[in-house]
């Protein structure tokens, strides 16, 4: 996985030789760390980028298609068929079509991205994703000048997704980004984590990751991408527009109507998951604040 890195740390930067270790093993290996590894780990901790364990990332999930409990996806998502998988790309593009996942992946270089994930429910994790920039795919299909937004849709298969047999949300789950957000180099399509294929509960085989927005924008198990001129409908915004805005940028100064967004509970550390301050744009302000210059982020939350 050769990778270009933009202001982000690689998991291999924070371990001895880029070996994929769980946190306990990583701690045990600290004595063997090269000097650069120690510096990397220290920096990772300082930046709030100490990765969560595989078990934390794959057993504490939101994937309402498999139930609303945090362990429901871990229990139920195994039955989702992820091979074959195709993504239909259409709307305002030069080369619309139904692209097999293998075709999509043959044209990109996968890389690691260690990102904070901040759920709107005020918990967070740090995840070592494997993926590629969404912009690479959009450029390949050719975005037409009239396109201003990108709409995404999750698989709709109630026979494999028990949650879709209940009217929790208006299925299928849909999300959307402004085109400049979609083209931003931090925005990726992830196909793996910790160097392995994405587990179903994390959105296999391909899901969006937008690290400066609340987690629900990072739509899982994507089957359709549509370039549009108008702002697309999004599931949580349709469900409760006063609670979940289209933008949903992480913002400690804009509370959810029912709870504060000033702090978050970092998953891990046992019963005493530490509460830490929430950062503007989830810590990615330097990279993305320019996208929103002049916008009233309290109105367009
Ligand atoms: N299709 C779909 N995508 C989804 C969700 C969902 O319920 N269905 N939950 C979202 C929410 S609220 C969060 S916090 C993240 C969680 O991603 P993770 O389980 O990989 O940590 O996925 C998002 N993507
Ligand atoms: Mo979330």
List keywords for this structure.
five-stranded mixed β-sheet, Sulfite Oxidase, Chain A, domain 2, 12 strands, alpha+beta, OxRdtase_Mopterin-bd_sf, 301 residues, oxidoreductase activity, acting on a sulfur group of donors, quinone or similar compound as acceptor, binds molybdenum atom, OxRdtase_Mopterin-bd_dom, seven-stranded mixed β-sheet, single chain
CATH superfamily: Oxidoreductase, molybdopterin-binding domain
CATH fold-type name: Sulfite Oxidase, Chain A, domain 2
The CATH class: Alpha Beta
Q: What ligands can be seen in this structure?
A: the ligand Nc1nc2c(c(=O)[nH]1)N[C@H]1C(S)=C(S)[C@@H](COP(=O)(O)O)O[C@H]1N2, molybdenum atom
Strand content: 15-25%
Helix/strand order: HHHHEEHEEHEEHEEEEHEEH
Q: Largest beta sheet, briefly?
A: 7 strands, mixed
Computed over alpha carbons, the radius of gyration is 19 Å
Average residue pLDDT: 90
Report the uncertain regions: 1-7, 15-35
Please give the count of helices: 9
User: What CATH architecture do you see?
Assistant: Alpha-Beta Complex
The total strand number stands at 12
Structural class: alpha+beta
Shape: globular
N/C terminus separation: 36 Å
Tell me the helix content.
Answer: 10-25%
Number of domains: 1
Give an overview in words:
This protein is an alpha+beta fold and 301 residues long. The chain has one domain (11-292): Sulfite Oxidase, Chain A, domain 2, CATH 3.90.420.10. Helix content is 19%, strand content 22%. The chain is built from nine helices and twelve strands. It has helices at 23-28, 35-46, 54-59, 72-76, 101-106, 134-141, 179-182, 235-239, 285-288, and strands at 86-91, 97-100, 111-118, 123-133, 149-154, 174-178, 188-193, 196-197, 207-209, 222-228, 263-266, 275-277. The strands form two sheets. Strands 3, 4, 7, 8, 9, 11 and 12 form a seven-stranded mixed β-sheet that branches. The two termini are 36 Å apart. Residues 61-65, 117, 119, 154, 173, 202-203, 215-216, 218-221 line the site of the ligand Nc1nc2c(c(=O)[nH]1)N[C@H]1C(S)=C(S)[C@@H](COP(=O)(O)O)O[C@H]1N2. The ligand Nc1nc2c(c(=O)[nH]1)N[C@H]1C(S)=C(S)[C@@H](COP(=O)(O)O)O[C@H]1N2 binds next to loops.
């Amino acid at each position: 996985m050769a990778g270009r890195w933009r202001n982000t740390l690689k998991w291999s930067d924070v371990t001895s030789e880029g070996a994929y270790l769980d946190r306990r093993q990583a701690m045990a290996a600290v004595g063997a760390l090269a000097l650069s590894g120690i510096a990397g780990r220290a920096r990772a901790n300082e930046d709030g980028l100490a990765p969560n364990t595989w078990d934390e990332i794959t057993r504490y999930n939101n994937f309402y298609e498999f139930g609303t409990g945090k362990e429901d996806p871990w229990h139920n998502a195994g039955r989702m068929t992820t091979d074959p998988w195709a993504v239909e790309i259409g709307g305002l593009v030069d080369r619309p079509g139904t692209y097999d996942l293998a075709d999509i992946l043959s044209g990109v270089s996968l890389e690691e991205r260690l990102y904070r994930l901040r759920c709107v429910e005020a918990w967070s994790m740090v995840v070592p994703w494997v993926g590629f920039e969404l912009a690479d795919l959009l450029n390949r299909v050719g975005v037409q000048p009239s396109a201003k937004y990108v709409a995404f849709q999750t698989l709709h298969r109630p026979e494999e997704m028990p949650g879709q047999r209940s009217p929790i949300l208006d299925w299928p789950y849909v999300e959307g980004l402004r085109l400049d957000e979609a083209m931003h180099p931090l925005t990726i399509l992830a196909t793996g984590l910790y160097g392995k294929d994405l587990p179903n509960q994390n959105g296999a085989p391909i899901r969006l990751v937008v690290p400066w927005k609340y987690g629900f924008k990072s739509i899982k198990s994507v089957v359709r991408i549509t370039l549009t001129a108008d702002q697309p409908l999004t599931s949580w915004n349709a469900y409760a527009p006063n609670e979940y805005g289209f933008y949903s940028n992480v913002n400690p100064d804009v509370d959810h109507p029912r709870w504060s967004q000033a702090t978050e509970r970092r998953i891990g550390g046992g019963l005493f998951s530490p509460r830490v301050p929430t950062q503007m744009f989830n810590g990615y302000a330097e990279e993305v604040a320019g996208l929103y210059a002049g916008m009233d982020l309290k109105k367009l939350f």
